[in-house]
Amino acid sequence: MMSFMFTKGPPIGRRDVAITVLFAVLGVIFVGFAQDDGYGADSTAGKTLMGVSILLAVIPVLWRRRLPLVAATGTLIGTAIHVAAFGTIGRCGLLLPLFFVEAFSVGAWLDRRKALVGLGIVLGAGVVCLSADSSAGWGGLTISVPVSIAVWFIGRVVRSRAHLAARLSARNVQLSEQREVNARLEVESERVRLSAELDALLRTRLADLTQLAEAGADGEDAGEALARIEAESRATLDQMRAVVGLLREGDDAGTEPQPTLAHLDALVVSEKGTGARLTVAGEPRMLPAGLELSAYRVVEHLLRATGDAPGVEVHVDFQPDAVAMTVSGPARGSRRQTETALDRARERLALHHGSLQAETAAGRTRVTAALPVLVPA
User: Fold this and answer.
1) Which residue has the higher pLDDT, 9 or 253?
2) Beta bridge partner(s), residue 140
3) pLDDT confidence of residue 88
């Protein structure tokens, strides 16, 4: 029984407090001080007591949403106490609107069974009130009963609409989640398709490169054959990068061409600012794609092996059979960061059998790296 009565709704809000205060003020004024002396209110003290006592029926409306059945029962009990204590006086002008508010609340905030019980309690409170009312009497039931039932039905409609809105909102959330799942499945399907395209691309390109190499071996000029193989290799790498870029997770995956030594100016400024200097010696030329990318990355790592103070110098020397890169500048404060950058540069150089020499003296670091270049016979 206790769990039946104490079904909880939303917490008490400002509107509940405002409604309760309004009925309380009106109750003290109209049920107390506005009564005629003929109804037993022959003194100021008696009128005050009569007005204050009606709060027993009014205060429970504060819980009209939080505990609708408790509020309706409290109002019924408070009304019965007031009728027993003060007899026949004018109460319906205050209490009937109060009953209508509670009829709406039990209809809107309780399930059907409990709402019917709440309606019965409200109708009972109306009977108790009108049984000792000087202005309306029993005839007031012709208004109290149908209006209470009407506002109860309005509460049921409001509850039904609220539940429908909640179900629609939940359904929208489910649909949104399903759309996200479908989108992920479409992305995965596209990734599978791109992977298949990448596999086919590699097979085709490798077959083309094999044919070019065989043509060179059969008497074609070796230099021309190597140049064609280099061009085809670059095209293959660019296409592979475009496909692999699409396969990367996230929307920020880049598909731009790989950086080359021609981009060193922007790299030096980006890493060390406008105070750094880049010089180039020898005859700059296009290198094999993989070698040129590694040369760029080596310079990038060597820049990170130096400090951020002005005075960083980068020198690139295109030699006949190699590319030498020298980076010098203030030593970094963290030796660990310097060693990490140099280790990464060594890993890149090891791919092409390159070499690296590093020294630190007088607060400056100087690192020289060399990458051998295959020279056509």
Assistant:
1) 9
2) none
3) 87
Query: Which single residue is written with the structure tokens 């504060």?
Result: 62
Q: What is the distance of C-alpha 72 from the center of its chain? A: 42
d(CA 369, CA 362): 21
d(CA 183, CA 175): 12
Average model confidence (pLDDT) for the chain? 81
Strand partners, 355: 370
Distance, C-alpha 246 to centroid of its chain: 25
CATH hierarchy code of domain 261-372: 3.30.565.10
3-class SS letters over the chain = CHHHHCCCCCCCCHHHHHHHHHHHHHHHHHHHHCCCHHHCCCCHHHHHHHHHHCHHHHHHHHHCCCCHHHHHHHHHHHHHHHHHHHCCECCHHHHHHHHHHHHHHHHHHCCHHHHHHHHHHHHHHHHHHHCCECCCHHHHHHHHHHHHHHHHHHHHHHHHHHHHHHHHHHHHHHHHHHHHHHHHHHHHHHHHHHHHHHHHHHHHHHHHHHHHHHHHHCCCCHHHHHHHHHHHHHHHHHHHHHHHHHHCCCCCCCCCCCCCHHHHHHHHHHHHCCCCEEEEEECCCCCCHHHHHHHHHHHHHHHHCECCCCCCEEEEEECCCEEEEEEEEEECCCHHHHHHHHHHHHHHHHCCCCEEEEEEECCEEEEEEEEECCCCC
pLDDT tens readout for residues 104-127: 999 999 989 999 999 999 999 999
Q: Where are the domains of the chain?
A: 2-170, 182-247, 261-372
| Tokens 């083309």, residue located | 208
366 vs 134: CA distance, rounded Å: 107
168's tokens: 């629609």
Q: Which two tokens stand for residue 213?
A: 């190499």
Read off the pLDDT of each residue in 64-70 and give the average, rounded to a whole number. 91
> Could you identify the residue written with the tokens 């298949």?
196
In angstroms and rounded to an integer, the radius of gyration of the C-alpha atoms of the chain is 45
pLDDT at 274 (0 to 100)? 83
Residue 313 has phi, psi (to 5 degrees) of: -125, 135
**pLDDT tens track for 216-267:** 655 556 666 666 666 666 666 666 665 565 555 444 444 456 678 888 888 9
End-to-end CA distance of the chain: 101
Q: In the structure encoding, which two tokens stand for residue 340, read together?
A: 């990490």
